[in-house]
Design a protein that fits this description.
Elements (H helix, E strand, L loop, with lengths): L1 E7 L5 E7 L3 H14 L2 E12 L5 H9 L27 E8 L2 E4 L4 E2 L12 E5 L5 E10 L10 E13 L7 H7 L5 E4 L2 E4 L12 H5 L4 E16 L5 H25 L2
Antiparallel strand pairs: 1-2, 2-12, 3-8, 4-6, 4-8, 5-7, 9-12, 10-11
Bound molecules: zinc ion.
Zinc ion binds next to loops.
Amino acid sequence: MEIISLTQDKSKMNASFIIKKIDPTIANTLRRMIIEEVPTMAIEDVEIMKNNSVLYDEIIAHRLGLLPLTTDLKSYVVKSECKCEGKGCARCTLQMTLKSKNGMVYASDFKSKDPKVVPAYPKTPIVKLLKGQEIELVATAELGKGKDHIKWAPCMVWYKYKPIINITQANIKDPEAVVKVCPKGVLEVRSGKLEINQKKLMLCNLCAACADEAPNSIKLNEKDDEFVFYIESFGQLKAKEIIVTALDMLKKELSVFEEALNTMK
Ligand SMILES: [Zn+2]
């Protein structure tokens, strides 16, 4: 296995990387570790004291559960693995309060006891209150995993084979026309020749529009042992943190397996 590039955007919430010398089994294992095993904070229990808004208690509780919360993995442990044995304590849960009387209630109206765990998108609307309507509740967030509920999943993650584009120049009558049909802008004309824009090559999804335009000159293929991964965080953790945590989790699972083997007679 060899990671040959890691690129992230300014927010560090989105990243892509290429892994060489692996097969779909390993690629899919990594994808599933990321979605199912990387823990994040999410609201699990809501105690509603007041709510005469247009939304039922259940709808509000459901909305709150889906709010991405910034997550501090160093300070919390997953409830089921906590010393409190799942009762809930300061190491595995966090209480947040919400009290509002007017207008649109936003995620930013939540008061959290831990400044490191707050709604990732403060402008998320929760409910609109009319005159005389109010809402008051205590929400308990806990560290959980995507395998138990998708609200704890940290990101979208997907991969594809690395695309290969082979161009034979001789038969291309109109290179500009071929450039135009590519919806991803992967091709360009340099000194009258059709060339690949290497910076954009990874955007190619093998749609074959170029090969249709120049059937005898362009051959598309995929490299079946090189995978391009994409990660789009939901906001709880940065993309790199997600990857590192997923690999840690995989190591842990493998060591549990190894220990089990060692105890076998
Ligand atoms: Zn606990």
